[in-house]
Amino acid sequence: MILFLAARPVTAPPVRPAPRRRRARFRPLARLRPFAPYRRIFAVPGTRAFTAANLLARLPMGMLSISAVLMIAGSRGSYALAGAVTATGLAATALAGPWTARLIDRYGQSRIAVPATALATLGSLSLLLCVHYGAPDWTLFASYAATATTPNTGGMSRARWAHLFRDDPAARHTANSFEQAADELCFLLGPVLATLLCTTLFPEAGTAVGAALLLTGVLLFAAQRRTEPPVAPRTAGHAPTRSPLRLPGLPPLLLTFLCTGAIFGSLEVVTLAYADAHGIRSTGGALLALQAAGSGAAGLLYGLLRPAARPGRRFLVCTAAMAALMLLPLLAASTGSPAALAVALLAAGMATAPTMVTGMGLVQSRTPPGQLNEGMTLAVTALLGGIAAGSAGGGWAVEHLAGPGAAYGVPAAAAALALTVTLLTARRRPDRP
Q1: Which of the ends of the chain has fewer CB neighbours closer than 10 A, N or C?
Q2: Model pTM score
Q3: What residue intervals traverse the membrane (predicted)?
């Protein structure tokens, strides 16, 4: 038997091509791999819930201001009064916002955000009632100033991502990119929804719906306790923590954010004036939506890149790209073609989100974990201050320069100023990624 088996010819086993067929079968799924970073961060339990709630709470940020303008101007017949009331609220937010964020860092998001939002909601409802029943003008200022306690919902969401991925720079970069795209989406949809509600239902509808969404979203967000970052422990006799404004490297970033906010504020005013001057006033919002859409798409794509080993250098590159692309609307407006301006605004928006994402990452790296909400709120405050200054500068340029087309030099100048500040204050030592 052994001799018989030994005499049998030995043949190689047949080759099975099954593995190749399997790889070919799953090739379409491989195309989705570029979006794996986003799938990975949302695979963490609780992230989808707090993100959805935060988006609901963040949408009114793009609604409440324009709703107040439409409501006050429609009932009192004065855009000057409406603008003064909203400017007062913006100034009050710049003062109260960092203090609210400091309390959130000290006592936790759920303990502070809910009562702060409730007070802000009461301010919005008070404004609505004062407008509806014809109360004196000073009551409008007082009511809208009470909304300054609105917490920085985007900052609280970024703080949760920073806590969940404190040891994963790549995941933090992807999360910050998503948050920036979410900001663009809210500021894109918010004004459209507010205008629709105020013009089709009744003038107070935008403020009422915005206040309801804000309170509901914050309540749902605060209920997600398992993803809430813990409060930094404080021992007895612990010295008071100094303000993030005194931390090295943060004030130059805030100055750059101030210049970036001036880009947004002036671009909005000048674009609306350009559309009005060319007889296409109804499409002014659509032109601004193209800029926000370009920024949001660029933010999502930027999140697929690896985080920079030297974020300070990448921030310099991003601000340089933003300064270069902001020249496109100025050149397109000189041609007198709204279509060319639309393309230019879409392209110009593609540099703002990467700049904001990298800048927010630098704010996180230069701010202690126990002061993260305060640091990011200071960045948002700088943006708001820049938006206010940019709006005023853009309005002045529209009236005193040679037409709205030339006024596009204001956002271009603000972008150049942001680049200059970044160049002059660039840090030589690399930042922690």
Answers
A1: N
A2: 0.71
A3: 55-73, 79-100, 112-135, 205-223, 252-274, 286-303, 315-333, 339-363, 375-394, 406-426
